[in-house]
Input
Amino acid sequence: MVRMRMNQAVAAALGDEMREDPDVVVFGEDVAVAGGPFKTSDGLLEEFGPSRVRDTPISEMGFLGMAVGAAASGLRPVAEIMFIEFLGVALDMVVTEAGKFHFLSRGAFTCPMTVRASIGAGLGFGCQHSQTMENWMSHAPGLKMVMLSGPQSAYGLLRAAIRDPNPVVVLEPRALYGGRGQVTTGADGIIPLGEARRVREGDDVTVVSAGAMVKVALAAAEASDDWSAEVIDLQTLIPWDRDGVVSAVRRTGRLVIVEESPYTSGWGTEIAAYVGARLFGELRAPVLRITCPDVPVPFGRELEQRYMPNPGYVTDQIDQLLATGRVPDPWWVGEGRSS
Amino acid sequence: MGNGRRMERRRAVAADRVARYEQMVEIRAFEDRVQGLFAEGRVHGTTHTAQGQEAVAVGIAAAARPTDLVTCTYRGHGIGLALGMTPEVILGEIMGREIGCVGGIAGSMHLCDRELGLLPTFAIIGAGIPVAAGAALTAQVRGTDDVAIGVFGDGAANIGAFHEGLNLAAIWKLPVVFICENNQYGEYSRIDLTTPIEDLADRAASYGIPGIIVDGQDPDQTVEAVSAALDVARSGGGPTLLEMKTYRYAGHSRADKAEYRPEGEFERWYERDPINTFRARLESEGLLAAGDAEAIDGRVAARLEAALKAVEESPPATVDAMFGNIYAPV
Ligand SMILES: Cc1ncc(C[n+]2csc(CCOP(=O)(O)OP(=O)(O)O)c2C)c(N)n1
Ligand SMILES: [Mg+2]
Output
């Protein structure tokens, strides 16, 4: 086990994959000489050289298209999108090209590429640099998608993503890059795609979260003596661990989902619908989704903190759910705001 | 709020070279101050400053009319100030206060002033280029003589939106002026590492429009070049690409110390500092007398002090602002 920051865990995963597989190449804006805008590829250029580690121009459509072509012809490219929003100018390459190659070649071609993108609010970057946008990719069969929640998750999921024969989008909460944790490296540290992870045991309620919200859900669970919550890190958003989540919720009888994104069409909507349908009649409370409001991410420390679910709010929402057996209003509805 | 003062600021820059000088001094001092506030931990988030690029900003503001819509990037404080925005509304936005031009909910990268012709500034590279062409389409369809101006960096010349935007503007002969602020860097990468040609103006040839290299460190030349391109566009001659050669004195953003710059590069550019050289020219022409420049420095410092005070007295952006203006009322 090595103690490292999440951005270092990303770099370690890239380095280990590059060492084991000469087909792994890394490119993106300022990833080589500068070691990445968030230092997630520090040291790679020095170790692996300029053929395998490349700085690109500001040409997301171009370099993601190259990732598709390179992947289809034998390499395992890992492309970095600095902020998820920049994927907007290149979405075709991921959603409509990479995600369909295998299907459209009757299995003759694979597209083993990884697209890493930083996501999320909390650092004062304003509404065009703070979204999560996972639903850009979640409606496109052929793609897989994971969301990192800390150093071990970063190391393990990224390595699995690179090894996967399909295009995988790796969403990296920017606010977590500096957070430290113990990381098991090597083969034992790899986390299989498609499996959720229980990060806390509990009996009264199952809290499913992902990314930066895992920490929030954990803190909320720790804060209550009145009920005990099982906390699950979903880890892979597509394909998500249906059986794991359903069996967990079957045991506690209650499902709460904590998401860092607007209420409408969040990833939790799918989980809520699926679990609600599968466990109809077995649930002891309606499914509660705790999300951000349907507004652009505001700038300004206090507003931005208000925007995202925080531990106190999550605890309070779960308190109300358990006390009343009904889904409480989100804070903004409680304040009479319509959004 | 302060509409009269903003228009007055704009008129002064349009009318008078000494006022342009003062505007450049204000931009430099403003950007230095912003960097200082971040360094002191008094501001949250990130910021992108434009010290060294002041002559481009005044060139645009002096030549354009307030009805000529401008698209600009996240590195927009200087252009905003030159267009007439007051230091307090920009600083207020940077510091997340109600007094800010967007009420403090947007931050440093997102300035806007409809009366002065500034569309919300763009934080996605290249996005403003086709949008400027779209503003020009309005002028063409409606038959007004307004012109749109799309301002972007050298790095943006490598993104699809640049090529698509220029081509569209060219085939439809839209009244738009594209202004590339070539400050030699896109983030931490020097232009020659990402772009195989020396002059981005050459790219205009692919679209059959004029591409003109301008000394972006000389406000007389920037004003003249933008004016000429605007005249062409206004009279139906279609788009022009102006490449303003300039230099970004600071790092890319707050966190960047620009240690990747080759030794001596900054010093070489600083020899042609747009403020120093313009000041010397105005002095030699007798437009600035002894003591005038110092008086300008003093006025600017006092104005920025007052702006900071006004911002600090303004409350933080409200939750109401966060829920406001998401949809236009039907
Ligand atoms: C589509 C997109 N890709 C990447 C970025 C990240 N980014 C922000 S500024 C910047 C450099 C831009 O350089 P340039 O166009 O020269 O403008 P400058 O910052 O020098 O004014 C990059 C890569 C972005 N904002 N949008
Ligand atoms: Mg630049």
Chain A has two domains: 2-189, 197-334. DSSP finds twelve helices and 14 strands in chain A. Chain A has a mean pLDDT of 97.
